[in-house]
Amino acid sequence: MAIGMKDEHRKLLRRLQPEIIKDLAVQKVVDVMFQIFDDEDRQQITHVQLTKREQARKLIDILIEKGPTAFDEFVKACDEYHPYIATKLRTESDMPAHSLEESNTEGTLL
Questions:
Q1: Within 13 A of 94's CA, how many CA atoms are on the CB side?
Q2: Which sign does the torsion angle of CA 79, 32, 23, 18 carry?
Q3: Is the pLDDT of residue 2 over 90?
Q4: Cα dist. 20→3, 11, 40, 85, 108 in Å?
Q5: pLDDT tens digits, one per residue of 78-102
Q6: Fewer CB within 10 Å, N- or C-terminus of the chain?
Q7: pTM recorded for the entire structure
Q8: What is the pLDDT of residues 34-49, one digit of tens each?
Q9: How far apart are CA 68 and CA 51, in angstroms?
């Protein structure tokens, strides 16, 4: 039986959801998180009739139902495309600091 995401991480994602969905590069994050999202998840998230915000909301909805590594993998995906989101998630969840050599420090969307 799989263990789910920590409750504190679920609550944090829900609380920060409005900020996260505002700018999330959904397709890029989904592509990086191939080990978390299966084909069905990817189809639901990137459905062409959904707006970008709806896609981001769907990503969060599916993400919180995934296993215990999903939160960490999402933060890592945000490191590359949304470092300001990754930093906020790390700070508010007491995760260790990021250790990649280089990241996009400008906080711009790619």
A1: 2
A2: negative
A3: no
A4: 25, 13, 22, 7, 14
A5: 999 999 999 999 999 977 665 443 3
A6: N
A7: 0.82
A8: 999 999 999 999 998 9
A9: 28
